Structure formats: C-alpha cells, structure tokens
UniProtKB/TrEMBL annotation:
It holds the Pfam family PNPOx_N. Residues 42-133 form the Pyridoxamine 5'-phosphate oxidase N-terminal domain. InterPro entries: Pyridox_Oxase_N, Split_barrel_FMN-bd. This is Pyridoxamine 5'-phosphate oxidase family protein. It comes from Streptacidiphilus fuscans.
Amino acid sequence: MSRYDRLAYTSSVRRVQQEMGSATAADRRLRGAEGDEAEPLTASVAEFIRSLDGFLFASVGETGWPYIQFRGGPPGFVHVLDAHTLGYLDVRGNRQYITTGNVRGDDRVALFFIDHARQARLKLFGHATAVPVGDDPVLAERLGSPRTEGTVEQLVTIRVEAFAWNCQNHITRRFSERELSDALAPVHERLARLERLERENAALRAELAARD
C-alpha cells in the first residue's frame, strides 16, 4: 500500500495535504515506501479481481487529457497471470481505439475495481500493453476462458506497479442480476411450493364439491 501512496502523493498533492491538515496521516502511510520494486498482488487482491464482472480503465493521451473506459465481462474475465500481471482478451467495441492509442503513447494506466454489493473498491497503478491477438496464441488461449463475448481483437496485459484498497465510505450498495438471482433463489423456491399447494388445495376443493 505504501508504494501506491508514494506514486500518488506528488509534490502538488503533498502541498494540498499540508493545506487541508492531512499531512501527518499521509506521512504515516509513506513510511517504509522506499524502493522502486513493483508491489506483488496478494491472494485477497487476486481473488477480488477474479470475482468482478467489470472495472474502469484510465489512460492519458498525448494532449494530457485523461480517458476512462469501462471493461466488462463474466466474473474472472480479468485473469491474474502471476503476482505482477493481469490480462484479458479485448473485444471489438466502437472502434475508436482511444485507450489503445493512449497506451501506445504512454503505457502508465490506472485501474479501478469496485464491488457495490460488498462495498469494497481497489485502485491500481500499472503499465499496460495491447497487441493483436495473433501475436501470442499461447497467451490468447490462456485468457480465453472466461472471456467477454464478442470478436476478440487484442491481448491486453497490465504489469502492476502498486495497489491500494479504498475506504468503504459512500459506496452505494447495488446488486447485479446474478447476485440478486442467487439471493432470491430461496424466495422463488418458497413461492413455487406455495403455488403448488394452492393448486393442490383448489383441486381438492373441486373434488369435494363434486362429491357433494
């Protein structure tokens, strides 16, 4: 976590922390942040990434303006290839290729993973590459299941530099269709049993009325 802070806390950021009275807390987070080695992903981070069905991908263009793109797919479409590398198959979209162009100019990116249901979020710095899918058939096969539906165009990999968990404050709880379906399965089963009982009761009443 301290490496992420060291990369994020620029001189301008530090001046604002002084102005806003949070410099002391920031100093504590920066302790032990020396060194330039990339921070390895932990087991909990890897599990969190694999559990999600989407994330935000931020890059910066040659004009200096940032660009944010959403990438989605089935849980696990972002593969944790090793302790320092993420990867996924990029499928054809609107064919603007803004993120791809930005990454070719400057491979530094930021990724933001959020789980609304569990009110958890993870931020990550890394170096990204995007190459045609035919450049590495072995990697393409490894990233092939699960993957986002559609025509695969590129192999995207992110070499992770640092990551940090964000606070849970102000994360609105939302649930995906799959999460709602799992949570409501017992309710649906109970309703189905009640419907069967109602049909059986109706048939029994009809049978008793016929006897009378």
